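My main concern about presentation is that the manuscript never shows what a single data entry looks like. For the editor and my fellow referees, an illustration may be useful. For illustration, here is how one protein appears when written out as sequence plus structure tokens:

***
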Amino acid sequence: MNSAMLKEAAYALKVYCNNADEIVESVISHAVGAAVAAAGAGCLPGAGSTIAAGISVGIIVKMYVSLGKMLGVKLGNGVLKSLASAVVADLAGAVAASIAVAAAISFIPGIGTLGSAAITGITSFCYVYLAGIIYIKMLGSLLNKGKSVDSMSEAELKQAMRNTASSIDLNDAIKEAKKAYKDNK
């Protein structure tokens, strides 16, 4: 599997977590879970892709909690929800066309429903995978600068998340996420 960005981010945190492979596995397992749940939601005509985005936010929060435990970072659930929502909103532009196509074809019985489920599943996998990369890179950057993530305000964390997201080549990250999806489906 070629998960260069994810592995690079995880291995940068080796000082804080003994097993960087666990971080990679956690991100991928959460992304797979999101894909499965979102594919089911994608079968619902019209609203399925919107429901899938909500499912993705919930799974991203769960992933952030899991990653935080591995790294000894404790953030409140409200802060994590806010960060997850911010990441999904930032990534929405990159996947808006996929969501629109999934919603449109979901009204076609049979093949449209299956197509919508597939598109929605892949999109949700990518959302969660990219959110994992961004979160890990953000934590790595903050921890390596000696910042106490636990004591940062929600606004400071959101800004750090935005800065991290803007530093990533989104096209390369999406290609990596799609490849990871193919490798893990």
Q: What stands out?
A: The CA atoms of residues 35 and 124 lie 5 Å apart. The radius of gyration is 16 Å. The chain is about 80% helix and 0% strand. Helices lie at 4-11, 20-42, 48-71, 77-105, 111-144, 154-166, 170-184.
